[in-house]
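Issue 218. Parser rejects a valid record. Input:
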Amino acid sequence: MEKTPSGTSVGVDDPYDHAGLCDHLTDEGKCRYAFEHPEQDLEFARERREDEFRCPAADPQGEWDWEDCPHYRCRNRDRECVRCGLEERRMAHSDERPLLEEHHLSYADRGETLGHEITVYLCRWCHAKVHGSWARIDDDANPDPEAIAEKEGRRSREQREAAFESAAERYDPSGEGEE
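Output the parser choked on:
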């Protein structure tokens, strides 16, 4: 299984098995990275420009796989845990710790240089299990009871804040309705 630089598990054997389309890919199959950041890699940008910015990894008959592209990046944007399915529930104007954390599947390539950025979201509880033990991100898992309780607590607070309370209920001049 792949490891972090500190030696903990990332929960997968091959990060590319869990990676999707490149974040730089446009709907037309063009490389946005080469177009928007040519100064970052002049040779790469020149080659893409000569090929009308076509992405060679996006083409099914292309000459590249995703891992061949030096600028491939795939960050999951779905706001739910890929392991147990727990959905994020953020409270506005709150500094509470999020239920979901970004989890990196790829750290460095075989040669000690920075590899591709491939990330998914895991809930805090699955994240700890993946890094701290035998757990894999593709396990068939249910949300941890503590995770469900935390999510439902946030949902209840959200509903209380959104509830309508009339001024008559909040203030009664006789003093009977005051809290």
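Fixed in the parser; the record now loads. The chain has five helices and three strands.
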